Amino acid sequence: MEALMTPEFWIAVGQIIMIDILLGGDNAVVIALACRKLPPAQRRLGILWGTAGAIGLRVILIFFALTLLQIPLLKIVGAVLLVWIGVKLLMPEHEDEHANIQASDKLWAAVKTVIVADLVMSIDNVIAIAGAAESAGDHQMPLVIFGLLVSIPIIVWGSQLVIKLMDRFPMIITVGGMLLGWIAGTMAVTDPALINPDVMASMPKLQESDALKYGAGIAGALLVLGIGKLLGRRTATH
C-alpha cells in the first residue's frame, strides 16, 4: 500500500489516463460507428459489452508487453515506435480513417466489431501504457488496470467534450505527443542491454541516474516536437 501513495505511482496514473484519452479517442468513434444501426434499447448494451471486451483484451496485451520489455533491446525498439506514435499524433488526421468500420443491427455482431477494431487499433496505446507503467515497479498491472478503468468512461461518454477541448486547445495534443517522447526517452535508457552488465556484456553500458533518465525524457519530448512540427509543415505545404 505504501507504494500506492508515492508521487511516482500517481504521476504514472496521470500519464496513462492522458495517453488513453489522446490515443483512445478513435475508440469512441469505432464504438459509435459499430453500434449505430442497433435498436435504441440494445445500443447501450452494445457499447457496454464492446467496451468491456476491449478493456479485457487490452489488459492482456499490456501484460505481455510489460513482460516483453524485459527482453534486451526491445525497450529501445518500443521507444522508437513511441517516438513515431508521438509524431503521428502531431500530424493532420485523415477523415476516411474509419471508413471500413461496418455497422450491424445485431448486438453480438456489433460487439465483435468493436472488440476486433479496438484490438487492431490498440498497438500504439499498449506500447505507450506499458512504457508509462514501467516506473511503477511491482505495481505495474494494478496501475494499468486502474488507469484504464478511469480513462475508458472518459473516452466513451466524454469523447465529444474531449474532442472539443482538443479542437479549442491544440496545445493539449502537442503536450500529449511530447509526453510520448518523454516516455520513449526514459524507456530507452532503462533497456537491460544498456544498464545491466550481465546482459550483452560487449555492449557499452550507461550509468543509471535520475539525470540520465530526465535528460533522455526531455530529449525524447523535444525530438517528437521537432519532427512532428517539421513533417506537419511539409504536409501543409503540399
UniProtKB/TrEMBL annotation:
<dbReference type="Pfam" id="PF03741">
    <property type="entry name" value="TerC"/>
</dbReference>
<comment type="similarity">
    <text>Belongs to the TerC family.</text>
</comment>
<dbReference type="InterPro" id="IPR005496">
    <property type="entry name" value="Integral_membrane_TerC"/>
</dbReference>
<feature type="transmembrane region" description="Helical">
    <location>
        <begin position="111"/>
        <end position="133"/>
    </location>
</feature>
<keyword id="KW-0812">Transmembrane</keyword>
<feature type="transmembrane region" description="Helical">
    <location>
        <begin position="12"/>
        <end position="35"/>
    </location>
</feature>
<dbReference type="InterPro" id="IPR022301">
    <property type="entry name" value="Integral_membrane_YjbE"/>
</dbReference>
<feature type="transmembrane region" description="Helical">
    <location>
        <begin position="139"/>
        <end position="157"/>
    </location>
</feature>
<keyword id="KW-0472">Membrane</keyword>
<feature type="transmembrane region" description="Helical">
    <location>
        <begin position="47"/>
        <end position="66"/>
    </location>
</feature>
<protein>
    <submittedName>
        <fullName>TerC family protein</fullName>
    </submittedName>
</protein>
<feature type="transmembrane region" description="Helical">
    <location>
        <begin position="72"/>
        <end position="91"/>
    </location>
</feature>
<feature type="transmembrane region" description="Helical">
    <location>
        <begin position="169"/>
        <end position="194"/>
    </location>
</feature>
<dbReference type="GO" id="GO:0016020">
    <property type="term" value="C:membrane"/>
</dbReference>
<feature type="transmembrane region" description="Helical">
    <location>
        <begin position="214"/>
        <end position="232"/>
    </location>
</feature>
<keyword id="KW-1133">Transmembrane helix</keyword>
